[in-house]
Amino acid sequence: MRSACLSLLLVTACWALPFRQSGFLDFMMEDEAGSGREDFLERASPVMPVGPVCPFRCQCHLRVIQCSDLGLKSVPEDIPDDTTLLDLQNNKITEIKENDFKNLKGLHALILVNNKISIIHAKALSPLTKLQRLYLSKNMLKDMPANMPKSLQELRIHENDISKIKKNSFQGLSHVIVMELGSNPLRSAGIEDSAFADLKRVSYIRIADTNITEIPKGLPSSLSELHLDGNKISKVTAGGLKGLKNLAKLGLSYNEISSVENGTLANVPHLRELHLDNNALISVPAGLSDHKYIQVVYLHANKIAAVGTEDFCPPGLNHKKAMYSGISLFSNPVPYWEVQPITFRCVFDRSAIQLGNYRKK
Ligand SMILES: *[C@@H]1O[C@H](CO)[C@@H](O)[C@H](O)[C@H]1NC(C)=O
Ligand SMILES: *[C@@H]1O[C@H](CO)[C@@H](O)[C@H](O)[C@H]1NC(C)=O
């Protein structure tokens, strides 16, 4: 039987036999000094029946290929052509080469977060004609990847070393919905006008914790959330938000804003949430009382010294379509006992107002 198995080894028939399989393995191990079971399996594997390929040490399930946390220095070569999700996060990949994704025509999601990528070959992403999600955060990229697929819906590229967004950086990306660009060494001068113009369906843009000093120009009118927290913006001009008729949330916390130009809020008629806390405002932004839909206004930690009775609510309730559900004013120099209760007559509930906690110096 042993010799029968041996001669059959090349056609692997013995694997199918329950009969004394372990004995057979024992024999192989005795016979080959220093060879263990793994060793034996590896040598036998080239002639094993070919199942779906899975790159060495990765985990493959259906069409999802998981190769995270493996210390990989480059993209594995033998990724199955029909892969839909490829997870390569938390590795040590330094470069994406021209042919790394050559055959992955069905790939929907590519996760490369937390590697050491500084170069993506200009043609590396071109074959990925179905790619919807590209996650490149926490790398060392100095430029936006070239030729990103037109199918892209979500680009996450925060925490890199990108200092410029060029006119053609997002060319043709008309399906992008979500864009996360924060924590890059961006300055306003590094963002070319109309760099965002092609993003005709974009709904969410976040550019937080950079060095930009103004709201980027030419943002698409499809935008519903704009998060610009933690930047160096010093004033909000009415023109900066012109045309953003769908904007519902605007995040400008932790900037250096000392003024919001009158007319700004009129340019964003559907705004619901405005975060202006932790800035340098000396008064409540003009136009709140005329705004029909605004419900949440964070103004805490500013330099607001006085609050007037018509700063938030119109004289009559008639043209306000939504009540406020959140207003914060604490950590401002205005003493809360000087703010008249009638100031908040168009607030849904008293608990929606945060006034106190002003620290006396
Ligand atoms: C912003 O500029 C300062 C001063 O030049 C620099 O130290 C800092 O790293 C920059 N921040 C970012 C996010 O690039
Ligand atoms: C803002 O502009 C409106 C309309 O032009 C005007 O009625 C209002 O007085 C202005 N408010 C301030 C604070 O300048």
TrEMBL record:
Q: Which family does it belong to?
A: Belongs to the small leucine-rich proteoglycan (SLRP) family. SLRP class I subfamily.
Which InterPro entries does the record cross-reference, listed alphabetically? Answer: Leu-rich_rpt, Leu-rich_rpt_typical-subtyp, LRR_dom_sf, LRRNT, SLRP, SLRP_I_decor/aspor/byglycan
Function, as annotated, reads: May affect the rate of fibrils formation.
Keywords attached to this entry = Disulfide bond, Extracellular matrix, Glycoprotein, Leucine-rich repeat, Proteoglycan, Repeat, Secreted, Signal
Q: Which domain of life is it from?
A: Eukaryota
Q: What is this protein called?
A: Decorin
Q: Where in the cell does this protein reside?
A: Secreted, Extracellular space, Extracellular matrix
Instruction: Using the record's annotation, list all stretches that form the LRRNT domain.
Output: 53-85
Q: What is its main location?
A: secreted
Give the organism the record lists. Liparis tanakae
Signal sequence span per UniProt? 1-16
Report the SS bond pairs.
54-60, 58-67, 313-346
Gene assigned in the entry: DCN
Kinase found in the keyword field = no
Q: Which SUPFAM superfamilies does this chain map to? A: L domain-like
